[in-house]
């Protein structure tokens, strides 16, 4: 198999192994002994083994260990890059959310469906949310920004991010509420994390922001009924229904300002990488 296809296939496969493991465990936990979040320690053990094998290159066969370490991209981030990386990533995520605010006035976005937290103890729900975010951060960043994007960067960073983002969105289309209209959202998110991985040669900054963002979006969904791709709980009418108004123009202006700020922050990050 060509090396590029191998990188994509390997990334998708190991990503699905990690995410499906958690999906199966939490579904079982909802059915059996839901008052006790037993799926969390079980997944912690699986995630540790997954991480050591696919990201750190531990275990047999030894002949593939160097390739697994290289593809996993779990490299130490230079101390002086942590601040610029997290700052650029936060600005990038803000610009992505504001982009969704603009797109929400152009097309009707789907509503995200979550579990009803009132059916389970608060401690159980909190444990599920935190572990789910940790799984998403570790597994998806290793699989997509490590194995897949890393294997595609020989064709240029832009190509690597676009292809990775399309695959990232395709995998999320398995959730029934996610449709093709959200592809720009997932490509933008892939760009935010992908640029961090390229600038630092590490998946660690993306993991921090990915996991933190998932925790925030999960609690926003439970507390306010707001999807991670929505700025408001109640969708506003599209401009085709209500016309172009001040709110839409304001959303466009905020997106442009935040987008420019994010671009400048990423340029500063790439410059900082070469300074030492």
Number of helices: 10
The total of beta strands comes to 0
Largest sheet: none
Order of secondary-structure elements: HHHHHHHHHH
Gyration radius (Cα, Å) is 19 Å
Helix percent reads over 70%
Low-confidence stretches: none
Shape: globular
Strand content: under 5%
Number of domains: 1
Helix-strand makeup class: mainly alpha
Q: Give the CA-CA distance, first to last residue.
A: 38 Å
Average pLDDT over all residues = 90
What does this structure look like?
- This protein has 276 residues and is mainly alpha-helical.
- It has one domain (3-273).
- The chain has helices spanning 3-31, 39-55, 65-72, 79-103, 122-152, 157-172, 183-200, 204-224, 239-242, 246-273.
- The two termini are 38 Å apart.
- The relative contact order is 0.16.
- The model has no long low-confidence stretch (mean pLDDT 90).
């Amino acid at each position: 198999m060509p090396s590029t296809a191998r990188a994509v296939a390997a990334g998708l496969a190991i990503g699905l192994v990690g995410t499906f493991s958690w999906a199966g465990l939490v579904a079982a936990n909802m059915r059996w002994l839901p008052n006790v979040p037993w799926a969390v320690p079980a997944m912690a053990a699986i995630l540790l083994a997954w991480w050591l094998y696919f990201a750190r290159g531990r275990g047999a066969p030894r002949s593939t260990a160097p390739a697994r370490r290289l593809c996993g991209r779990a490299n130490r981030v230079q101390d002086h890059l942590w601040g610029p990386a997290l700052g650029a990533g936060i600005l990038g995520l803000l610009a992505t959310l504001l982009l969704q605010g603009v797109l929400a006035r152009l097309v009707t976005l789907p509503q995200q469906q979550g579990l009803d937290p009132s059916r389970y103890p608060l401690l159980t729900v909190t444990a599920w949310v935190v572990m789910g975010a940790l799984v998403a951060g570790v597994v998806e960043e290793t699989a997509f920004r490590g194995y897949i994007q890393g294997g595609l960067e020989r064709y240029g960073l832009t190509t690597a991010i676009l292809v990775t983002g399309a695959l990232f969105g395709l995998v999320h289309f398995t959730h029934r509420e996610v449709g093709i209209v959200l592809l720009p959202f997932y490509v933008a998110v892939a760009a935010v994390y992908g640029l961090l991985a390229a600038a630092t040669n590490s998946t660690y900054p993306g993991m921090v922001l990915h996991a933190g963002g998932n925790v925030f979006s999960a609690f926003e969904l439970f507390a306010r009924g707001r999807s991670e791709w929505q700025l408001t709980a109640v969708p506003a009418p599209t401009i085709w229904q209500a016309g172009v108004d001040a709110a839409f123009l304001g959303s466009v202006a905020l997106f442009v300002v935040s987008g420019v700020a994010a671009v400048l922050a990423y340029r500063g990050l790439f410059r900082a990488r070469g300074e030492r």
